[in-house]
User: Fold these one by one.
Assistant:
Number 1:
Amino acid sequence: MSIQFYNTKKREKEIFNPIDRNRVRMYTCGPTVYDYAHIGNYRTFMFEDILRRYLEFRDYQVIQAMNLTDVDDNTIRRSRERGITLTELTDEFKAAFHADLQSLNIQPAQEYPEATGYIPEMIEMVERLENKGFAYKTDDGSVYFNIQKYKQYGSLANLNPAEMLTGERVADDSYEKEGARDFALWKGYKEEDGNVQWDSPWGKGRPGWHIECSVMSTELLGNHFDIHCGGVDNIFPHHENEIAQSVCANGPDFVNYWLHSEYLLVDNKKMSKSLNNFFTLRDLLDQGYHADAIRWMLITTHYRQKINFSVDRLHEAQKSVNRLREFRNKLVNYKDAGSDHAEKRVRTADDQFTKAMDDDLNISGGLAAIFELVRWGNRSMDHAELSESGAKHILTLMGKFDHVLAVLDMESGLDQIVDADFIESKIADRNTARSNKDFAASDAIRDELAAQGVELIDTADGTKWKLK
């Protein structure tokens, strides 16, 4: 089986063929560290985590670099508003970002390049573009990329070259698609930059946002690498400009596969502070929601579909995670010696999961394969038809699946450690109370377990339990 990814540049799914047979080099756009990242940002970071984890599931070695933008219009403006240095501001939010990644069980990248650590290399790339005739200096000491010199400009964002503005420039780091025009590679010093400045052949100044990622990605992964990721909001202008700079500076090969995740909505509306529906991860955790539920909610919608965040979806996410944990706990504690076909079921589930995820990370199909195995396994255990060795085979596969999902060993939303032996002993005590017609004691045990997130289900085959 071959993996296929939807390549934004080609507007179609393509079979994935890495440059190096068993190694994947991947660059993922990270945060601009001037504030706490919001859950829309984490939708993209979570997609990138699932992508990397699935490539590892398929036995690729993944080398991931995720940039931290620590100098741009936003960071400078925010540091001046707060009356602190740029470094003081960005250090605060770099630390917060890494703490959030740990909370959400996102694998750390091998490299976290920071823009301020690559200023000489950025100056060198701008000089190269200028010497090749793709860039020009302006009177204020800035250097701009001439988009008319690069005939493929607009191909990623699907822009019509005839509609681009010629002879116009834009100094802002971020702007709308309608503003397709020459963009700043190097920004000449202005008073509002304060003490954020570096010496250059064009005078004091600082890099533009777009040149930062071109330099950091190629410095760490080479001039030609496999995958570049981000949100759909990065397609233009950021990734379009990255391609133009990198190709013109280093040659025609840059990135083979461009993958982009869709927006996150809140109650079907775009997240906005003015609508009072803007959430950081810390906001949700402070409101009592749990990181495992947040992770599950963010990973279980296909990355190319908009995801609608709601409180109801968080509650449903928690139930799904708890159901998987309950299943794993039952497997761990299963002792019967039934006759079964677990090995065949394991192979089928593995094949179905892999086939679905090979299709551009079809997470819905992958989860369907997992929960079909859960249903079969629960039914087999309830009827003592599963063997102990069969349970171990399923446990091993669940561990493989969880390398991709990464939820089973996160902090539980139940605020408890599930102790199956304790629960079974409480069920035995309840059965004794019921046989003695001590229904007050029986109800008290049920209520005690319910308070710990354990639901009891009385069946013809005895009392079963599950996590709420």
Number 2:
Amino acid sequence: MTRSPSLICKGCWQNLRLPVPLRGIPSLPFRAIGLKPSRMNPNTCTFCELAFTTIMRARNVDIDASVMFADLRGYTGLTETLQPETMSELLDTFYDACGNAIWAQDGLLNKTIGDAVMAVFNFPVKHADHAARAIAAARLLQEDCRVRFAEFARTHDLDEGSLGVGIGIDSGTMKFGEFGRSHRDLTAIGTVVNVAARAQSAAAPGAILVTQRVHDRTLELAWNDEGRDYTLKGFEAPVRLYAAR
């Protein structure tokens, strides 16, 4: 279920106790000076983005957060048979589902990388249960994509099994800021981000794989999966991953 968008910026309210209006008539004076909903999370504002690029430029800001990578499976193969317009429609469908799921849990849709997305939870809107929120977003995304992809497959005469989403999640300390010289990129970096990306690569279509750190932060979810060790690219030692049902 898609939640109603926030009427005020959650970032400004939580961090500064400023009720900055995002929608409706009260927001019109703010729109006139360029303040509007952020593209990374429409429940925060462009002032928050400015704070990211100004305050975080030092590149030494550590945050405790959860990172989720979600990848659209089957996309590359379909590019050989479907028209570009149809592939664009498929990507729009996937991105819309990602946005709805991530923003419902106050996450930041940090990047769209071809047929994959990267989201950060616990920044700039903070929640102590950010690992559980990342899992909730992943579950909502899988559920929404099953419905959307089934309709897409029927419309375009495709095998429903040809589309799916693989998701990986990790939690821990990472750096968030602007990186690069000729091209500056606002994002999170660190081992946590790398592990989440590799966990996503190991996830089968329809699966959600999380790390030991995520598992240990969400024991209230009553895990019945004992996990298993995966050999992930770039890591010498096996990494234990758990399947979130």
Number 3:
Amino acid sequence: MVAHPSSSGTSYTALCTILQLKGEEEGWKFIQDYAGQVLQFTKSGAAPAKFVGQGEAAVGIVFSHDIVAEIEKGAPLVLTFPAEGTGYEIGGMGIIKGAKHLDAAKKWFDWALEPATQELGPKYEAYQAPTVTGAKPSRPELLEVNLIDYDFSYCGSNKSAFVDKFTNEIATAENLKE
């Protein structure tokens, strides 16, 4: 199972990773081939981990933190990464210019960037890798992944075209499973 890239940033990241690794021509052929093996395209990027954990499919393509969350709940899953490399996401935060409560926003930023704060993730079922020096990762293996040189500009500027091509030529976005 894998989510549909029209409704899932997770799936769009996976699609764009394939296109970057293989080039567009070979990448689309690869995507067409694997789409023929997909039981269901879901709306949510995290949903395939839940379905595979329940035995409804054999493989789920998701971000690693979604698999880890299901493993921590007792699902019989194995976390793996493609040897040739994988794309990734970078979570971010910002303060909006003219924020009504600027001092509070700055305090929240300062708190969020403390190593101890970033170590709180597992307490709230969040297993992303910490982003500040000194924070101990709950899952060190997540820092040992072969990441590709993911081109965020390329993926962002081509998103509409790539999602349209996927929807029109690979899998329609109608009746996606929650």
Number 4:
Amino acid sequence: MIKKSPPPPPGFLLRHPAHLIACGFGSGLAPVASGTFGTLFGWATYPFLRGLLPDDTAFAVFLLLAFVLGVTSCQIAGRNLGVPDHGAIVWDEIVPFWAVLLLTPAGLVWQLAAFLWFRFYDIVKPPPARWFDTRMKNGLGVMMDDVVAAAYTVLTLAVFKAVVERLL
């Protein structure tokens, strides 16, 4: 069994702006299931962000900038925590899950399905996610394995949607 590093103290968030971002504004400090808490943070903040950026193109540009910011922030936080993909780093769950929600059919049931599938793929790490997770020990690798989980999630939802529409 792999021993996980304990979450850093709350003061860690304030030592550098990258720490606050990488740790999902504190959502990554959960003592268990920090990735799930980060994804929940992403889900909870998505409606607010969509209110600020209702245009899909503007939101996509925001996601790209949040991704680039995440690569840098996760790199700095991982270096300062001594573990490249420390459990407290959850920005890599948040940004890809925002992208998933952008592409998810409307409705709470679809969003719940997106949440469950995203968590599944993030935990299982199907190829090439596992490659990024094990071989790229830097901010880009931290972000990319969750981008892959997001892509699998969107594909799974698209298949389910096609099946549901065919049955109806």
